[in-house]
Amino acid sequence: MDIKGRTVCVIGGWGLVGSAVCRKLMERTPKRIIVTSLKREEAEEAVSDLQKE
Questions:
Q1: Which residues pair with 32 in a beta bridge?
Q2: Cβ contacts of residue 42 below 8 Å, gap of 6+?
Q3: How many domains does the chain contain in total?
Q4: DSSP structure class, residue 3
Q5: Predicted TM-score of the model (pTM)
Q6: For each of the chain's 53 residues, which pLDDT tens digit applies?
Q7: Domain that holds residue 25
Q8: 32, 29, 37, 30: which is closest to 13 by C-alpha?
Q9: Interhelix angle for 16-26 vs 40-52, to 10°?
């Protein structure tokens, strides 16, 4: 799957599986990853954790 330069949305990106999916997607250099969760704080925490990597 070629996602380089594309925008990807991960629904439930804060959880264990969702965060692992985000990490794998980051290896494929998308333009943007949109991370969603039921709670805004969870999504913000997931993005913060991913930005540290």
A1: 7
A2: 14
A3: 1
A4: -
A5: 0.82
A6: 799 999 999 999 999 999 999 999 999 999 999 999 999 999 999 999 999 98
A7: 7-52
A8: 37
A9: 40
